[in-house]
Amino acid sequence: MDAHHPKRAQTDHPVLPAIAERFSPYLYDPRPVEREKLLSCLEAARWAPSSYNEQPWTFILAERTDAAAFARALDCLVEPNQAWAKNAGVLILTVTSRLFKKNGKPNAACEHDIGLAAGNMALQAASLGLQAHQMIGIVPAKVRATYRIPDGHDPLTAIAIGYAAEVPADSTDPLGQRDLVPRGRKPLTETVVSSWGVSAW
Fold first, then answer.
1. Bridge-partner residues for 58, per DSSP?
2. What does the pLDDT look like over 83-138, one tens digit per residue?
3. CATH entry 3.40.109.10 includes domain 17-168
4. H runs (alpha helix) in 2-159
5. Residues whose CB is less than 8 angstroms from the CB of residue 176 and which lie 6 or more positions away in sequence, other chains included
6. Whole-angstrom distance between the N-terminal and C-terminal Cα of the chain?
7. How far apart are CA 143 and CA 158, in angstroms?
8. Which residues, other chains included, contact 201 with Cβ-Cβ below 8 Å and sequence gap of 6+?
9. How is 154-182 classified by DSSP, letter by letter?
C-alpha cells in the first residue's frame, strides 16, 4: 500500500506494517484470489490463540472461481452487504462452536476466539496485498439451513477477501467515497485506564 493511501493508518506509535495497511474496503476488484495466498490467510487464522486451544471456529469457504458456491454464500448475506461483497474474490462464513468438546460445557470465549482467528486472517491478507472485510450482516437462519449447521454451533459473521479496487480521488460512488475516508481511532488515553474513567497516562 502506498504510504499516502487514505486508508493507511497514521499511528501514534510504531506497529507492524500490516496493521497500518489493513482496512475494510467496500469496492473490490472482481478477480479471484490466488490459492496460495488464500491458504496463507487460512493458515494464519489456524494459528490464532484460543481458550484451552479449543479452536471453536469453522470457516465455510466460497471462492468466486466456483460460481455456484459463491452465489450460495452471497445469498446468506443481508442485501446491503450483497451489493458490494459480490465483487470479492472469496467469501467466508464463520461458525462458532458454543460448547467445549472436552466436557460439553458452554465456551464463554468462543466469539472472542473466532474474532482472534479472523483478525489473524485479516492481517495476513493485508500483508499479501489483499484486504478482508468482516461483516456481522448475515442471515443466520439461512446459513444454518443452507449448510446444515448442527445444534451447538452458530453462524456468526462473514468475511470478504480480495483485492481492493483503485478508487479515483474524485469518485462519486458512495461506496468509493467510504473507501477514501481516512481511518481513525480513539486515542489510547480514552481506552487505557488505571481505574474506570481515569486514563493510565
1. 95
2. 999 999 999 999 999 999 999 999 999 999 999 999 999 999 999 999 999 999 99
3. yes
4. 17-21, 35-46, 67-74, 79-85, 110-127, 140-147
5. 26, 27, 165, 167, 168
6. 32
7. 10
8. 188, 189, 192
9. EEEEEEEEEEEPP--TT---HHHHHHHSP
